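Each lists sequence, tokenised fold; shown next:
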Amino acid sequence: MDKKDIYEHLARIYLDASSKRKNKSKLHPKLFKNLSLAAITCIFALSLFLFSSGFHKNKPFDSEIALILAPDPLKINFNFDPARKETFTLCLNNLNLNRFKTLAFSAKKANPLDLISLKVEFISAFKERSEVYFKDLPHKWQDYKINLAEFKGISDWSEILNLCFSVEEWNAKQKKGVVYIDNVRLIQ
């Protein structure tokens, strides 16, 4: 074997090795791209599954279709020296509530020592009124949900004028205080 044969043999080995390296480098980006797309697809499918079904018995991802009636917290600042009751009224402008089943809201009182009952009342355009009382509001936020069927005085939910939250003198231990109401919504 002479120098020329050795040189050609070494060149062939080198060129074969470098062409294999080029093929590998072309393979990796495609493989990486395909794996990335597969991973994104799996993550998306898993998140859809978890969102739609909930992943444990409390089902934190259950959603509710709701109409938000009060986007900001409401404050009933009562003082029973001149007044007998304090009311916060949400004007619903003849809203049709036939498709809704539940009224939901959160409430708390400012003074932990006070005993306060909250009156919740609907008034229809047909002058029908119905109320429900929530006794002994807590000092920390508590969620309340009530079926609209509990408001027995309303027979036609097609035109509701007002939703009222009231604190009455005979339902509060102290003469002065504050009640906070938040996240007022109607749920289908």
Notes: The chain has two domains: 1-63, 66-187. The helical segments are 3-53.
